[in-house]
Every structure is written in C-alpha cells, then in structure tokens.
Amino acid sequence: MYRSIVDIRLMKSVSMLLISLTFGLGAAHAQGNDALQRLRQTGHITIANTQASPPWSQIDDQNQPAGYDVDVAHEVARRIGVPKVTFIADSLSNFIDGLRTAKYDIVVNSMAATVERKKIVDFSAPYAPQEFRIWVNDKVTGVNSVNDLAGREVGVEAGTSNEVWARAHLTNSKIHTYDNGGFLYNDLASGRIDAVIESQFAGLKEKQINHLPIHEAGPVLTISLGCIAIPKNQPRLVEAINHAIGDMMADGTLERLGHKWLGADYDVVGDIHKATQPAG
pLDDT tens across 85-140, in order? Predict the structure, then answer.
C-alpha cells in the first residue's frame, strides 16, 4: 500500500514536471519565432542580394558589397536596432526558397511584391522604384509604344514583375520567358525576339558591358516598386522595417541614396508616390 501511494505521488510529480516543461518549451519556441527580438538580441542580421546588379547591388573595388540596395539595407538594419550586417550573394530565383529555409533573414534586392511571391513570403513597404521600358534591336523600327508590339516576339525574365506586366498588357504579343538575363539580351541582339521589357538600368548595363546594338523605345511603361522580402508570420519585423522605410522617406535618406547611386535626377520618393497613387 505504501509503495503504491509513493508511486502515485511520483507519477503526479513527473506529470506536473512534464506539463511545466511543455509550457516552458512552448514559450521558448514562441519567443524564438520572434525574428525581430532574435535579431536585436544577437545584434546580427544576414541579408541576401545578387551583388551583380549595379547600381542596386555589386562588388566594389574593395571586394565589398555596394550599391543602392546595400546602403538601404545597412540603414534599415541600424534603424531596427541591429548593428551588424552580413550580406549573402544569391540569385533572384533562389531568394524565396532561401527565406523559407532560413538561409538568410531578409532579402534586400528591390524585389517586386508579386501576387505569387506574396503567397510564400511577406514584403515591406516599397523603397526602390524602377522605370520599365521597351528595349529593341537597333535594326528594329516602328516601335514607339505598347500598341507597336502587337504581333511581335517579346522577351522577359521569368518570374519577375516584367513578366506579370507583359502578360497583362501585351495580350497581342507572343511572350517568351528567360531564366537567364544574358540569354534574353543575346536573343534581342541577334534578332530572335523583337523587344524586351526591362528596367532602364538593366538594359543600359547589358548594352554597355556587352556592347549590344539595342536601345530604348518609347516612354516609361510602368514603375515597378522594389520591396524588402521577409519570412512569413513575422509581423513585428515587418512593422519595424516599414517604420524605418517611412522615416527614411520622410527625412530624405532614400532621396539622398537615390541621387548617390541612381542619378542626380532620379526621384525615388516621387516615383514611389506616383506608382502608389490610385488610378484615375
């Protein structure tokens, strides 16, 4: 009888201990899931970008990441209370999976918050407007607007906001998607496609570096808004980053960085306001 009472008391003690541990682990798990708290506690954040897309991100002559995205990333990290930044180079096609697998904490690469991407990750407020234009081969004539692309072969990079825009607005064109920007521009230069929908900076980079016979045609088609990509279910981190971006817009930091990297006439804040105004 005595042994059974002791056994019962022991079982109750073990049960209470297990319950206590369960709640303790649950609380620790919930705390660990708060990315903002973790980043502030460690004082370190890992940030992905391509480091191959000047003037947005590149490697400078000191073998260090540099560019508009890089400067914005440093400033956002400082404003959310994380002093140390480590940049990780990756490709556009890997960014979403990289966030899902915690390869890095956030992506600062002027990514557009497309519908498909938003199903998997969250995005900040916009901080990087890019003007998108029609690029054509120098031998192509008669292309000055979207209407002139009817019946023509148009190339875009797969999975980008360029592709989304092209499929929505160039319904009378044949859209070709490319996983590699180099192949895209090679086909434009060789005449395999008639036009490319691309940002002004990307087109100029390909034209100048590879000495391609291409040029811009017509006015700005649309302004794509680049955002910071953030893992799902991190509302405090999203809020902190949005607060930082809002302050950077208000105090002139984004405009200053835009003039530094994108050109003295590049109106970062103005283009963001223009692109976010309701139609009509």
Answer: 999 999 988 999 999 999 999 999 999 999 999 999 999 999 999 989 999 999 99
- Per-residue buried b or exposed e for 114-147, using 16+ beta carbons within 10 Å of the residue's own CB: beebeeebbbbbbbbbbbbbbbbbeebeebeebe
CB burial of 72-99 (b: ≥16 within 10 Å; e: otherwise) equals bbbbbbebbebeebebeebebeebbebb
Whole-Å CA distances, 126 to 27, 109, 136, 216? 33, 11, 29, 25
Among 248, 247, 227, smallest CA distance to 238 is for 227
d(CA 42, CA 102) in angstroms, rounded, equals 16
Alpha-carbon torsion (48, 27, 40, 257), positive or negative: positive
Amino acid at 58: Q
Region 239-260: what's the mean pLDDT?
98
pLDDT in tens, 159-186: 888 899 999 999 999 999 998 777 899 9
pLDDT band at 280, cuts 50/70/90? low
- Measured over all CA atoms, what is the biggest interatomic distance in the chain, rounded to whole angstroms? 101
Q: Give how far the C-alpha of residue 30 lies from the chain's centroid of Cα atoms, to the nearest Å.
A: 27
Residue 275: count other Cβ atoms within 10 Å of its Cβ. 15
Q: How far apart are CA 137 and CA 144, in angstroms?
A: 13
Question: pLDDT tens digits, residue range 54-79?
Answer: 899 999 999 999 999 999 999 999 99
- Residue pair 127/227 in contact by the 8 Å Cβ criterion: yes
